User: Fold this.
Amino acid sequence: MSSPTPPAVALSAVGKTFTAGAVTALTDIELTVAAGEFVSLIGPSGCGKSTLLRIIADLEQPSTGSVLVGGKTARQARLDQDYGIAFQQAGLLDWRTVAANVELPLELHGVDKKTRRARSAELLKMAGLTDFANRYPAELSGGMQQRVAIARALARTPGLLLMDEPFGALDEMTREHMQGELLRIARETGAAVVFVTHSIPEAVYLSDRVVVLSARPGRISDIVSTGGWGRSATDTDVRSSTEFFASVAAVRAALRGDEVATVGGRDLR
Ligand SMILES: Nc1ncnc2c1ncn2[C@@H]1O[C@H](COP(=O)(O)OP(=O)(O)OP(=O)(O)O)[C@@H](O)[C@H]1O
Ligand SMILES: [Mg+2]
Assistant:
């Protein structure tokens, strides 16, 4: 009998206090992301979304609790390069061309040059950057750099993608295109995605579940099952449907719930 697939991410009682300034960024985070699931994190600026993603990626150590990534410790998952990351800053290597940046994770994994070239060509086509393969990051706009970072995150078709506002710098049409491509890739590869965004419609469109965080200290205040609009969409007009707007309204209410509770102490949901 084969063992069941472990969750992509399992967080238990995770908390984080930064000693500098004694900021409690996160408290008591319980969250399990199933293999292949798309989960968005949404919440006010400074509520700890990036910190949580960095903890999953083992770029930051939690002060309390435990973190498992694909059934391994976060450290082991990082060493094994089990996930792709695309963060708020593109984080490209200035001295490498666009194609060489995309190929970096493959190079680190000993993939041969011909296969690397073919893969980066495919990804750059997806990102609409074929003509820029041999240019350097400094020659690209912010949104273009971000698309290179996304292509790089996808290079090894990882089982988990960690994305921190990856589409924030993109114009609306490019953003919708990249959302569609991300969903397609996640579907084809079975990758789970943990996705940070400030956009409620984006979270609703992409996700199976939207995790709503509240500020100071960051904690999960609500989890809204949105049902994967983008994944199940057969027509492109799903974003204008009444049902879609109802999901958006549900997440907005969950987000507002906090502020209302803080401001007036009354639950207006
Ligand atoms: N290295 C650090 N040292 C001290 N405090 C930090 C550090 N990194 C983050 N913080 C604090 O932790 C809190 C959460 O920050 P974080 O970057 O995770 O927020 P966020 O939800 O991603 O915000 P945004 O939506 O603006 O990106 C903030 O109060 C921030 O000041
Ligand atoms: Mg952030």
